[in-house]
Amino acid sequence: MGQIAYSANTNEVVEAFSVTDEEWAGLCLSPRGTLLMPRSAWPAVPKTSPRGLRFFAHYPGYTGVLPKPESYAHTRLKIDVVKAARELGYQAELEVAGTDPNGAEWEADVLVTLPDGRRTAFEIQLSSQHLRDFRFRTERYRRSSVECCWIISNQPVDARISKALAYENMDFYRTHGEFQADAEDLMLLGVQLADKDTYPEERPFFRFSRGKEMRCMPMLEAIQGILNGIPQWRRPRWHWGSSL
User: Fold this and answer.
1) Do the Cβ atoms of 158 and 130 come closer than 8 Å?
2) Could you tell me which of 7, 99, 104, 244 has the fewest CB atoms within 10 Å of its CB?
3) How far apart are CA 72 and CA 192, in angstroms?
């Protein structure tokens, strides 16, 4: 399942979340093969979940490896992020695939392109992931000249990654008496969600940094700041802005 498909006739991207109700109804009645799934080019079928979430799925009979299903909250959050980036005036696309110079493939939940050509991927992670995987995926983007910002759930993802980083930086704690639970090579925004199967009516706020530098801000402000290079690293934590 996913939020985008391609027109078989024009190769134009069709977004499940952005088409009108009338357009969606027409897509649901279109013949098989009118729309194709990304990468596999298999016929796409428009569907609507019990919660009213539109998406595209592979037409029955596909024998390849199906994409890993996303949770309701994951999909809603990436839709909100791409909408917010567009509201700010940036070019933003969902589910953009790419390949780094080593041939490793990636797919960004949201890819934002700035007027000067710089690109930033916003990756949503609501399930636990090992610290090394955060770094591996981040570095894969950077080899493609793409910056990466992770949007992670406060529980359980942030709670676990902060412990892993604090453990990794025990020498810093022994020297300075202060835990380092963030890292210069990882840009993290936290989000508080009840669970992966629900999503708030209003856009959730994002949390940035920790301790005395922690900020909670609207999604628009956080995304604008990330894209404008507002965050500054001064060990042991990130700071919103360059002032001391």
Assistant:
1) no
2) 244
3) 15
